[in-house]
Amino acid sequence: MISTKPFLVFDLRYFVHAVIGVFVLKVDDENLIDLAICAFIHNFTDKECDVYKLDVVSAGNNFTKINKAICAGFFFHAARKDPQEGYRTLFENQPVYIHLSSALFQRQPDWVIYHELVMTTKEYMREVTVIDPKWLIELAPSFFKVSDVGR
Questions:
Q1: Global pTM exceeds 0.70
Q2: Which pLDDT score is estimated for 38?
Q3: Cα–Cα distance measured from residue 39 to residue 25, given in angstroms and rounded to the nearest whole number
Q4: Helices (H), 28-147
Q5: Cα→Cα distances 74→19, 41, 114, 118, Å
Q6: CB contact at 8 A, 59 and 70
Q7: Which of 85, 151, 96 is nearest to 122 (CA)?
Q8: Which of 133, 114, 126 is nearest to 76 (CA)?
């Protein structure tokens, strides 16, 4: 269940950055600041959960829950594989590409959520994760609905 408390939605961006930072930390020791961000978010979230009397529950190894949480916070950063080349953002139909340094660059999944766009020779998506398009309908029904593909 996704809380509607504003602080939790606001923290999602920092949480995603912190989670990404932890994975980067394992690869690159120059990103030690991300560990500090993780600690800050952990402490802040603990205090806020105490104030609102919310239970802190771990997702454990269920990465679907984590990906759905990211999708709920970044649904406006969804992109779909373009049959011609790269991807197209869902909101602006902008051509974008998975950044070359991404672990997903070789996989090229059909649907993704990204954290930010970086312009170099092309518009690249950074911090990308795979999503199920059904999650967009489930988590952001005001913005997405099922369409008839045959139309």
A1: no
A2: 66
A3: 13
A4: 33-51, 63-74, 133-139
A5: 14, 18, 8, 16
A6: no
A7: 96
A8: 114
| Token pair of 85 as six digits | 């080349």
Number of C-beta neighbours around residue 84 at 10 A: 7
Instruction: Please list, in sequence order, all residues whose beta carbon lies within 8 angstroms of the beta carbon of residue 105, skipping any fewer than 6 positions away.
Output: 98, 99
Q: What percent of the chain has pLDDT over 70?
A: 72
Phi, psi for 147 (deg, rounded to 5): -115, 160
Alpha helices in 28-126 (DSSP H): 33-51, 63-74
d(CA 63, CA 77): 19
The encoded tokens of residue 65 equal: 């829950």
DSSP class of residue 118?
Answer: E
E strand or H helix that includes residue 126 = strand 123-130
CA distance linking residue 13 with residue 82, whole number of Å: 27
